[in-house]
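hey can u check if this looks right to u? its 357 residues, i copy pasted from the old doc so theres a chance i mangled smth
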Amino acid sequence: MRDGTIPLEVHVNPQSFYRPPPHINTGPEDEYHTFFITGNPGLIAYYHTFLACLVQLLDEKRGVSSGVHVYGHSLAGFQPFDSPGDAPHAPYRLQQQIGYVEETLQSYVRSQRLRSANQEGEHPGGASSQRSLKIILIGHSVGAYILLELIRRHRKQVSLGRGEEMDIVGGVLLFPTITHIAKSPSGVKLGWLVNLPHLALIVSTLVHVLTLLVPRRVLCNLVKLVTGFPKDAAETTTAFIKSPIGVRQALHMARDEMNEITEDRWDEEIWGASESDSNTVRAKLVFYFGKDDHWVAEHTRDGLIHTRAFKEDQPDDRKPQMFIDEDGIPHGFCIKHSEMVAKKVVTFVQDIITKSS
């Protein structure tokens, strides 16, 4: 991404995932782009199976969803480095992560607009390179918080006469941690711990020393034995543990999540509770909460649903749809429940496309 663009060849690697629609029956103006934002730890490799299932299901649901691109990227500090010296000297804060994801999204949009112009034989300033991309954001856990922040920032840019290169037409928030994470069961247990001075540095140094001489294959087998993870998730966890800054980055970011994800901070326009006074396309939001999510307090979840969700007896389709899982899917769905969640997400994506067409 050093030149401000993103490679758009089909790829699946530890840093990013990209699949264009296998069968495109529409022109670029009718294409949609799903942009996936990970949770913490922010390794896109944890979601490879989920994203691959999403691609397959979108292809099977030809017609309304036949022109959907699928892209996802690791968060900053979690991507692989060629050598320890390439890793950042300090971990990224939550606000820096939001900025990093925003820059990645802008680079992706810029790359797709150039691709369209090249395919249609236009010069860089032609109609295709000026066309707004239709973006559907998908965020998991803290990625859902980042998703809402991206929408807020984009709306601000449009109000200032910028940001017209894309329209964020929808967002799917999976097991979202968007308010009062410290009040969740895990937040209550771990909040004091992650706020201990220098904890992230101490733990990451200890993990590095303990695993330094352990061969990767041996460590991977230990991870599988202790966690019960399938092979792909165990390999990703091993890479995370072995990375120069991954453990420190995860703990550092967790502290920010505890301290910054508190009150509902988004305005009525984002929640669909007021008429838009700008030219911004209103994003259709869909929330999918866990029933017994240890990272979301039930009372904060229920309060959010009560005040912000679309209700059948008070029809206002501008408000977000909010669902609570009934299938026993855990917060970390990407480990063993990718296909189940992908089936739900493809329905949400199709609904967003239908309502934004």
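The longest strand covers residues 166-174.
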